[in-house]
Amino acid sequence: METLNFLTPELISQAINKIGSPAYVYSRETIEQRCSEVTAFPNAYGLNARYALKANPHLAILKVVESMGLHFDASSEYEVMRCLHAGIPGEKIQLTGQQFPRKHLKEIVAAGVLFNACSLKQIDEFGKVFPGSSLSFRINPGTGSGSNRKTNVGGPSASFGIWHEQTDQVAKIAAKHNLTINRIHSHIGSGSDPEVWKAVTEMTLAQADKFPNVHTVNLGGGFKVARMSSEKSTNLQEVGGFVKTVFINHAKKTGNEYKLEVEPGTYLSANCGSLICDVDDISDTGENGYTFLKLNTGMDTITRPALYASEHPIIIINDNKDSQDYVVCGHCCESGDVFTVDESDTLTTRTLNKAQVGDTVVIEGAGAYCASMSLKNYNSFPTTPQILLDKGELKVIQHPQSLTEMLAPELIPD
Fold first, then answer.
1. Of the candidates 269, 312, 393, 394, which has an alpha carbon nearest to the alpha carbon of residue 385?
2. Helix (H) or strand (E) holding 283
3. Bridge-based pairing state of the strands 47-52 and 71-74
4. Residues 332 and 249 in one domain
5. Cα separation of 396 and 387, whole Å?
6. For 298-320, how does the pLDDT look when each residue is reduced to its tens digit (9 = 90+)?
């Protein structure tokens, strides 16, 4: 069975007394440790580490990450505005979005934010508004790495970036608007296959050689994080050492020494977060069926199991020495609101401490793509509050949402 990451029964009790259940709790110490690991990523000619803030964009998390010296990668103009609202200087922010900015583009560029085009159309649109300026572009390297289609963001089935065979068109559009391409970006997904990393790194460097003003090559993130004890995390020193060698060998052949950028999100935040909840009900479907452990949280708060068939550690906080196999499910009126499924999204059971209604439950690995990607207010459940554990002190960083706050934006026309 799984164990707690950074919480203790005493801290869990304090958190529940402070803000109730369910609640997210994040560890500042864990975030800082992960940031230190990322900034120590091996490199040959300089490194810039960015945090992919879509993993967890809470203002408090952004400020902790900034304090550790990292820059940021935003996936929309609104994530950029979130960073600027947090007081992060524009020059520390890069915008890499599937949608071209429709509302804040001029404000973003005026703030010094770096624009990273994700399509040929985006380069053309940017050039029309800012001719003679500089930008980077994202390339689809033609291959990717990930446990399934939803976590693989490279190759012919992925819409992200400019297809690697179309970079000649990049040069033509840039020339039309007198644009300077000074950085190039690629990203393969949430896998860590060393052979894919090698091939993509070599191909991305070769593409960078086509643009004489490129000084930085961004290889994205996607470093595998072990949430479950049965999983294995990416060793950043191992992967970084591998990438460093590729950069050095390329420089020996071409004379081009590129600065490296990486932009992890999950690696920084996944295991810094825990979701505290409790057992709301227990039911079964007979002798040949299942025993269901029903929680007071669900896919409205943590969507990854339903969306990706992802596994999260689940710990029952009690002193029971007996165990039982449960299907753990959420409180949403959806058959897909289940926490215990395998990689093929097949219902499975989890062996846990034998539970009673009212027992506290902790779901670990909940710091990345959980609060940020939740189905907020589905079934009209309120947004889950959040706490930061900072030097042993539990600080509320997002209050519980009241029904009045939930309904405030809605209007009934006359």
1. 394
2. strand 273-284
3. parallel
4. no
5. 4
6. 999 999 999 999 999 999 999 99
Residue listed under structure tokens 């690697």? 164
Helices (H), 177-316: 194-208, 236-254, 266-269, 304-308
pLDDT at 148: 43
For the chain, the average pLDDT equals 93
- pTM for the model stands at 0.93
Tokens of 227: 């949430």
Residue burial 197-226, b: 16+ Cβ < 10 Å; e: rest: bebbbebbbebbeebeebebbbbbbbbbbe
**pLDDT at residue 143, as a whole number:** 63
Note the pLDDT tens digit of each residue in 43-62. 999 999 999 999 999 999 99
Question: Could you give the number of structural domains in the chain?
Answer: 2
Written as one letter, the residue type at 2 is E
Cα–Cα–Cα angle for 192, 363, 266, rounded to 5 degrees: 30
The structure tokens 């052979």 sit at 195
- For residue 239, pLDDT over 90 is answered with no
User: Rounded to an integer, what distance in angstroms lies between the CA atom of residue 122 and that of residue 67?
Assistant: 32
Asked, for residue 205, whether it belongs to a domain, the answer is yes
Residues 130 and 33 in one domain: yes
Alpha-carbon radius of gyration of the chain: 23
Cα separation, 242 vs 236, in Å, equals 10
Q: Which residue has the higher pLDDT, 151 or 6?
A: 6
pLDDT at position 188 is 67
Is 413 part of a structural domain of the chain? Answer: no
Enclosing domain of residue 229 = 28-269
